[in-house]
Amino acid sequence: MRLQLSDEDAAFQQQMRDFFTTEIPADLRERWASGGEVSADDIRESQRLLNAAGLAVPHWPVEWGGKDWTQLQRHLYLQEMQAASVPPPLAFNASMVGPVIATFGSQEQKERFLPATANLDIWWCQGFSEPNAGSDLASLRTEAVLDGDEWVVNGQKTWTTLGQHADWIFALVRTEPDAPKKQMGISFLLIDMKTPGITVRPIQLIDGGHEVNEVFFDNVRVPADQLVGERGKGWTIAKFLLGNERVGVAPVGTIKRALASAKGYAAAARSGEGTLLQEPLVAARFAELETQLAALELTVLRVAANSRGEKPDPASSILKLRGSQLQQDVFEFTIDIAGPASLEWQQPDDTDLQSWAAVATPTYLNFRKASIYGGSNEVQRSIIASGILGLKG
Amino acid sequence: MDFTFDDEQKALQDAVRELAARNAPAEAHGDVPVGPAAHDPKAWSAIAEMGLLALPFGEDVGGAGASTVEVAIAATELGRARVATAYAEALTAAGLIAFGGSDEQRAKLLPDLLDGTSLVVPAFAEPGRAWSLEAYDVTASGAGAGSPRSIRGSEAEEKLRGVQGDVTLTGTKEPVPYADAADKLVVTARVGDRTGLFLVDGATVSGMRVRLDNTPAVALGSVDDAARAIRAGVNLGILAVTAEALGAMDAALPMTVEYLKTRKQFGVPLAAFQTLTQRAADMYVSLELARSTVLYEGMALAADPYDATATSRAKVVIGQSGRHVGQEAIQLHGGIGMTAEYAVGHHTARLTAIEHTFGDTRWHLARLAGALDDHEQVDLLT
Ligand SMILES: Cc1cc2nc3c(=O)[nH]c(=O)nc-3n(C[C@H](O)[C@H](O)[C@H](O)COP(=O)(O)OP(=O)(O)OC[C@H]3O[C@@H](n4cnc5c(N)ncnc54)[C@H](O)[C@@H]3O)c2cc1C
């Protein structure tokens, strides 16, 4: 055991900090930090700057732009990126489809897709969920039927995040309707969003924003060589992908920033003759959240330092569960600090309100999603119960 | 203590439920408005016509001579159907006038407010400030020799008492819900080191922001009485919003229960997963504790409109249960609960707004904490 980072890791951390705070433009980072609607251009610009410096996809195989970092280094990289409010590489590209293609794809697919995916020349979206296949993903029904050297896809995906910006979608489709188990008939297909027969319909969420969509497939013809891995083995790929999705999911750096900002807001908000931060109940809540956040960060570090090899640690479910809860707690506390100001939902031209206060409530409501997507918190608890504690059912 | 509704109260509940159902906003497809809802004039007229604004006020000023229990019954039904009007705000403003105004002002002003001819809302919040019943940055001045000057202490009161039209207010109030729909505002403003109540109808309003710049105002009663009047007026507003929140929870829980019964995953209804049904049971516990507390609040205010303890306890219980029920309602629905097309998220948004209206959970806990010395143990029956 050792309390401090090794000299080598400390130097690595400093190097990351320097890069993120000097090489990524401040205005871009400020826009990201202030929340609100996601700007596709900002995400693209950020990822391209990172990629040019070899920092967009460090966990990929070295051959495709990865770095042979330790898990701890990868954690430090994420942490510093979040602390500097750098828009992170698009998760669909960097954490999901990229590693899948690198692991399961043909040489041709790797050459065709990986460089463009790392540089966000292709914007990917995730077509897994369907109206009747949410937590029970394996019951998905979107079908793909082989016709000559093309798959003909019919069905509907939903909750497709940022699908409105996407160039391509990676989808789970049913290719073997007669397979003995529903998990066995699924394949992993790459589909160009410009293919005729695809319709994207926006879904408005309760914060008023538009980040998810429904995607309809009506006789969409997809070249057969866009199937990744073996036909009917899509479920294995999906499990690999979802496991990766959970690694690095506790956005400790982001939560830290949000909590630090909240502290600043409370110190500036006047209450009685003093400030809100001087109110005992407010101060106590900050102390509590900082302590819980420290426990989470220490657990992240412990898990990161321990995990070896490619297999995601089942403890990553702890991080997803607790990370989403703490993130929600901080946004919840932020509306409390905004107090009456949280009743306004936007920053009108004519206002004395500060912009953070005007987005406090929509942000709080929007982040209710964090405990639903990427494997809901109930699903995480089941994974902990069965995978770690050996409790079935 | 008896929590059963009598026949008249049941009839009121039925009538308001019916009115609310007729005026409930629909979740439509596509561009659904989310967030703070605009004042709905149609629902407002219906509410006024049914006499709901007049419920807790005396017949001498145009009131219905009912009680705060009836307010709780009515507001619960409005909340259940998500009817968006300034009901709580109008009751608060009327309460401020009823408890703070002179006899003459009451007689002159209240009838129009209580029959809905005029919409008056309170303006408390100041930008960059936590919730407070006190005013800080909005100040009252008496007109001096040509130029306005700040007035202090008892000299101030001399000036303000009865010198109607000779007072001006300066500063910003924000956010003031429904300010853009109101004819007049009841504004808290600083008078020396105290807070007074003023009636204003010439403010510059933009959205929820109210700008006062030497704006003429009428003092409501005297600064001596303002603190007590504010407490009673705000109590009435808190009763209305806590009851509205009760209605919102009362709607969100059955929707969630129904969803657990019908939504299938893994080949079974979600209700087959005990972890979810147990959480629905916890939501029910929260809801019923909230119901008892709000009904008690209604009865307590009928007996003593200044009762800050019953009111703050209700606000705390509603704040915490509203958060619990609202968050769980979304979570147990999964993705669908996050959408603007589905009512559960709207209820949760409203519960969130209510928690931050008329003081949040922390403010009310702090007020209760400050009064711990007043009693040895909790005693509800004496
Ligand atoms: C904002 C947002 C963005 C998303 N982005 C994407 C995306 O880009 N691509 C994509 O494919 N999907 C996406 N999703 C979908 C997401 O993965 C699903 O919402 C999630 O899997 C839950 O499925 P569901 O919504 O159908 O809820 P359901 O599965 O119907 O679940 C409803 C409730 O029941 C619980 N539950 C379900 N089964 C069990 C069980 N066995 N035991 C205990 N509890 C259970 C759930 O935890 C939840 O609380 C997104 C969702 C949201 C809200």
From TrEMBL, chain A:
Residues 6-119 form the Acyl-CoA dehydrogenase/oxidase N-terminal domain. One of its GO terms (molecular function) is oxidoreductase activity, acting on the CH-CH group of donors. The keyword Coiled coil does not apply. It comes from the Bacteria. PANTHER family: ACYL-COA DEHYDROGENASE, ACYL-COA DEHYDROGENASE FADE29. InterPro entries: Acyl-CoA_Oxase/DH_mid-dom, Acyl-CoA_Oxase/DH_mid-dom_sf, AcylCo_DH-like_C, AcylCo_DH/oxidase_C, AcylCoA_DH/ox_N, AcylCoA_DH/ox_N_sf, AcylCoA_DH/oxidase_NM_dom_sf, Mycobact_Acyl-CoA_DH. This is Acyl-CoA dehydrogenase. One of its GO terms (cellular component) is plasma membrane. Keywords: FAD, Flavoprotein, Oxidoreductase. Pfam families: Acyl-CoA_dh_1, Acyl-CoA_dh_M, Acyl-CoA_dh_N. It comes from Flexivirga oryzae. SUPFAM superfamilies: Acyl-CoA dehydrogenase C-terminal domain-like, Acyl-CoA dehydrogenase NM domain-like. Its cofactor is FAD. Residues 232-388 form the Acyl-CoA dehydrogenase/oxidase C-terminal domain. The keyword DNA repair does not apply. Belongs to the acyl-CoA dehydrogenase family. Residues 125-220 form the Acyl-CoA oxidase/dehydrogenase middle domain.
TrEMBL record, chain B:
Its cofactor is FAD. One of its GO terms (molecular function) is flavin adenine dinucleotide binding. Residues 231-368 form the Acyl-CoA dehydrogenase/oxidase C-terminal domain. Pfam families: Acyl-CoA_dh_1, Acyl-CoA_dh_N. Residues 7-116 form the Acyl-CoA dehydrogenase/oxidase N-terminal domain. Gene3D superfamilies: Acyl-CoA dehydrogenase/oxidase, N-terminal domain, Butyryl-CoA Dehydrogenase, subunit A, domain 2, Butyryl-CoA Dehydrogenase, subunit A, domain 3. It comes from the Bacteria. InterPro entries: Acyl-CoA_Oxase/DH_mid-dom_sf, AcylCo_DH-like_C, AcylCo_DH/oxidase_C, AcylCoA_DH/ox_N, AcylCoA_DH/ox_N_sf, AcylCoA_DH/oxidase_NM_dom_sf. The keyword Flavoprotein applies. The keyword Transport does not apply. Keywords: FAD, Flavoprotein, Oxidoreductase. Belongs to the acyl-CoA dehydrogenase family. This is Acyl-CoA dehydrogenase. It comes from Flexivirga oryzae.
